């Protein structure tokens, strides 16, 4: 079991701006206790339990993870509760994709990972549809790509690779605008992950599409699926993720126009694509899905502050996953659960945080940040007056490197904290030193000073009315333990 990130939030102002020497000594003792309580084995066991089964939002197995998190919090004597919402989710029923070559042969292409009992590859909220049409490659599917291509894609099935700064929903939207009949999206990752499918949603905006602006609690109003406000959240043409292998099978058979030079240089699957179509290869693509009102659950643990109980610091992570979710999001949830365990140790030793700490385990994030958005909508007034900061941890473990994004108010805090953490990959060096010497660090240092996409995500996670908050999102290496001694608040 690889080592995992531990994200620690402790009373920053208590530790760093002590009111008295006595207070300072006490804080240092608690800080040491907190650090010495870290444990690989507990995080490892949490991660194992969370990833035993695929846990897609709205399914029984994801309710079981909610129960697991709730039981964990309550077993630690933390004040805990669950909030449930009935929201519109989207699931696949049936799908197929076949390639038809000019010599009359055809081949059915795989639409899920071999040997895994996981939901078929799909784009949540894609409409159902069936299309038999020519394939055409549109690079990243940006407007400039359609311009460069200079080919009429009306009625075609466009193949786009992920990247170029576009979200998958925007790729579908641009294809629709250009008259395409359907969209297939793949990850152009070169030699890695060639059989994998990147599931995702293609809905516009965040939150439950049938309760825009208010929490979808029991008995609340719901818009009809035919309501324009709902309809405009969904694309009009079907789409689907495909694997890199499936993409190669299609793209290597295309004729007609040559690949534009400016695309060729950045293609990882070099040599596979010489022409972009349209055709002569035909694709037969069918997607049948259903939109279904399903119950989701957020789980919370609240540790009441001793000096400023009405100021809340929130630390959250989503819990639902497209499949097993070992990285996204369970590596973050395992860290969150261990954080709770260590808080509990501190509490039983007489520690009290200065401000109230709320640990949040969100549901249905993958479908469009639905669990967190519904909760914010339900508690908007309360949060507007009490919330001080929101910290998000999602993929706590995803390869080497340290990545963080925040609103500028937390900039110096992040620097100070990373200076205190030893880099487990390099002896005698802090995370700060490794990070600042890296390209990512150099970029990160700049990013910290401005509004980044990650910050935008963090803000939207808790909806725009909370833009006054301090927000942060952290990703880190598998080998960093403990990564961030976060003396916050
Ligand atoms: Zn995630």
TrEMBL record:
Keyword Glycoprotein among record annotations: yes
InterPro entries in the cross-refs: PA_dom_sf, PA_domain, Peptidase_M28, Peptidase_M28B
Residues in coiled coil: none
Residue span(s) of domain PA: 137-195
Keywords per UniProt: Carboxypeptidase, Glycoprotein, Hydrolase, Protease, Signal
GO molecular function: carboxypeptidase activity
Domain named Peptidase M28: residues: 298-426
SUPFAM superfamilies: PA domain, Zn-dependent exopeptidases
Stretch forming the signal peptide: 1-18
Recorded family membership: Belongs to the peptidase M28 family. M28B subfamily.
Descriptive protein name: Variant 2, glutamate carboxypeptidase amp1
Organism: Pisum sativum (Garden pea)
């Amino acid at each position: 079991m690889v080592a995992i990130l531990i994200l620690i939030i402790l009373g920053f102002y208590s530790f760093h701006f002590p009111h008295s020497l006595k207070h300072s000594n006490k804080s240092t003792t608690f800080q040491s206790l907190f650090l010495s309580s870290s444990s690989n084995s507990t995080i490892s066991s949490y991660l194992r339990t969370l990833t035993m089964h695929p846990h897609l939002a709205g399914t029984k197995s994801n309710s079981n993870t909610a129960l697991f998190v709730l039981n964990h919090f309550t077993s630690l004597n933390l004040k805990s509760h669950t909030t449930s919402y009935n929201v519109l989710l989207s699931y696949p029923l049936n799908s197929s994709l076949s390639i038809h070559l000019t010599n009359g042969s055809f081949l059915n292409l795989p639409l899920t990972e071999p040997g895994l009992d996981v939901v078929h590859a799909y784009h949540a909220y894609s409409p159902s549809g069936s299309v038999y049409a020519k394939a055409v490659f549109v690079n990243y599917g940006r407007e400039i790509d359609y311009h460069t291509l200079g080919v009429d894609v009306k009625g075609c099935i466009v193949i786009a690779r992920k990247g170029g700064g576009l979200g998958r929903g925007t790729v579908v939207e641009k294809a629709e605008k250009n008259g395409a009949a359907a969209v297939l999206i793949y990850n152009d990752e070169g030699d890695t992950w060639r059989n994998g499918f990147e599931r995702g949603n293609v809905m516009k905006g965040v939150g439950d599409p049938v309760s825009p602006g208010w929490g979808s609690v029991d008995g609340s109003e719901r818009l009809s699926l035919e309501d324009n406000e709902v309809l405009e959240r969904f694309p009009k043409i079907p789409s689907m993720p495909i694997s890199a292998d499936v993409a190669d099978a299609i793209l290597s058979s295309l004729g007609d126009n040559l690949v534009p030079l400016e695309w060729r240089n950045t293609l990882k699957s070099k040599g596979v694509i010489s022409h972009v179509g349209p055709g002569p290869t035909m694709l037969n693509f069918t997607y049948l899905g259903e939109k279904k009102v399903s119950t989701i659950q957020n789980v919370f643990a609240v540790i009441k502050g001793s000096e400023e109980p009405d100021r809340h610091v929130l630390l959250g992570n989503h819990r639902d996953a497209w499949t097993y979710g070992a990285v996204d999001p369970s590596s973050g949830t395992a860290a969150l659960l261990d954080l709770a365990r260590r808080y509990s140790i501190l509490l039983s030793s007489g520690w009290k945080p200065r401000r109230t700490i709320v640990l949040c385990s969100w549901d249905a994030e993958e479908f469009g940040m639905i669990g967190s958005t519904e909760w914010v909508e339900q508690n908007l007034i309360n949060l507007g007056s009490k919330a001080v900061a929101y910290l998000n941890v999602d993929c706590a473990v995803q390869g080497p490197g340290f990545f963080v994004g925040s609103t500028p108010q937390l900039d110096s805090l992040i620097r100070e904290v990373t200076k205190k953490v030893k880099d487990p990959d390099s002896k005698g060096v802090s995370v700060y030193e490794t990070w600042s010497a890296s390209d990512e660090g150099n970029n990160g240092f700049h990013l910290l000073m401005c509004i980044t996409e990650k910050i935008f995500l963090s803000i939207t996670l808790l909806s725009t009315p909370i833009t006054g908050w301090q927000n942060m999102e952290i990703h880190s290496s598998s080998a960093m333990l403990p990564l961030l001694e976060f003396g916050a608040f």
